[in-house]
Amino acid sequence: MREVALYDPNREPASWMEMIQPTQYAVFLCDTENRTELTSDGHSLGPGMTRSCLIFDSLDEAEQYCRRTIADIPRLRCDVFDSRGRVNPPVATFVDPQFEGSLDSEAKATRMIRWACLLIAASLPLFWYTWRTRGEGWVGAFFGVQFVFVALRLLHWGYSMKEELRNRKVQSDLRKQQNVRSG
Q1: pTM for this structure?
Q2: Can you list the pairs that 158-166 forms with residues at least 24 positions away whose Cβ atoms lie under 8 Å?
Q3: CA separation for the pair 179, 183 (Å, rounded)
Q4: What is the structure's pLDDT at 141?
Q5: Which of 36, 80, 158, 172 could make an S-S bridge to 113, C-beta 3.0–4.6 Å?
Q6: Cα dist. 129→70, 119, 146, 147, 150 in Å?
Q7: Are 22 and 182 in contact (CB under 8 A)?
Q8: What is the pLDDT of residues 25-44, one digit of tens each?
């Protein structure tokens, strides 16, 4: 492992992207809750501090480092990228178990879809009430429409999250295979 400044005009090459080899992985550290960049010892970057990443020779090394560091600094989030850097989604993301709910996950997407279904079901009695009162209970229709719109947003968000997670996994697996073949 080596810590490398993202950009150093006094170094040749100046950019970290020109230093990383095709089989290497870069780890970026940030705070799980507010996503501010952190140093390798878990401190926030202060004014004038150089932004950096950690470069590892293998994915296993990077994963072991992330697990060890998160055990020591629970608020830390480690995003592991392949040699192409932040152009693609991370190959892996590591957080302390108490913060796993903050990550996009299949379970989170499914919860959104379930809430959407519940809201649609809850809107039906409201529409029925408006119909039954021949429009006098217009408040029911108003809230019914709001429930439907929120449900549609949640459905879109949930299914988009599921699709994004699937795409990330496929891309990550392909990049891992390519790195193994080239290494």
Answers
A1: 0.66
A2: 158/109, 158/110, 158/111, 158/112, 158/113, 158/116, 159/109, 159/113, 161/104, 161/108, 161/109, 161/112, 162/106, 162/109, 162/110, 164/104, 165/104, 165/105, 165/106, 165/109
A3: 6
A4: 92
A5: 158
A6: 53, 16, 15, 15, 20
A7: yes
A8: 999 999 888 888 888 888 88
Closest CA to 56 of 20, 85, 86: 20
